[in-house]
Specification:
This protein has 5 helices and 5 strands, in the order E-H-E-H-E-H-E-H-H-E. With 147 residues, the protein is α/β, with parallel strands linked by helices. It has a single domain (6-143), classed as Rossmann fold, CATH 3.40.50.620. Strands 3-2-1-4-5 form a 5-stranded parallel sheet, sandwiched between helices. Strand 1 (6-11), helix 1 (17-31) and strand 2 (34-41) form a beta-alpha-beta unit. Helix 3 packs parallel to helix 5 (127-134).
Length: 147
């Protein structure tokens, strides 16, 4: 395989995303590849304190939550120099949406953070693990240390 042409960065706004984003940017610069970024909003808003995110469940805050997520995605895109047309925020299951976008956009490397889950989370699988097993392109999972 030759140099990477198109790199997709999957972000989750977990607080460790800067490490993953920098790695994706470095690779894009090294290979002179196009860099894209995706953030997937889960269909069911559930608090996930393991990621440091608590989503308010009242219906009045849904619009504000969506707008806040858009702002975060735009900030990351701006910091990385990602063109507006290469920024995606979609609803769905992260593992499915990331893989589908990668296929549709002919991505040849997906960069995603891995939290190194243990116990029940390990048995159920993580987004990084699912992307690794279902993607038709290379996947780089950046190990994120909790704490």
């Amino acid at each position: 395989m030759g140099a990477y042409q198109h790199i997709l960065l999957a972000v989750d706004f977990s607080g460790h995303g800067g490490t993953v984003a920098q790695r994706a940017k470095d690779l894009a610069e090294k290979y002179q590849a196009k860099l894209s970024v995706i953030h997937v909003l889960d269909n069911i808003p559930m608090p996930d304190t393991g990621y440091g995110t608590v989503i308010p469940l009242d219906k009045d805050s849904c619009y504000e939550l969506l707008e806040a997520e858009k702002v975060k995605l735009m900030q990351i895109g701006d910091q990385l120099g990602v063109a507006q047309v290469n920024r995606w925020m979609v609803w769905g299951a992260p593992k499915q949406e990331i893989v589908e976008l990668a296929e549709r956009e002919r991505v040849d490397l997906i960069v995603v953070g891995s939290h190194g889950r243990h116990g029940l989370s390990l048995l159920l699988g993580s987004t990084a693990n699912s992307v690794l097993h279902y993607a038709r392109c290379d996947v780089m999972a950046i190990r994120l240390l909790n704490g």
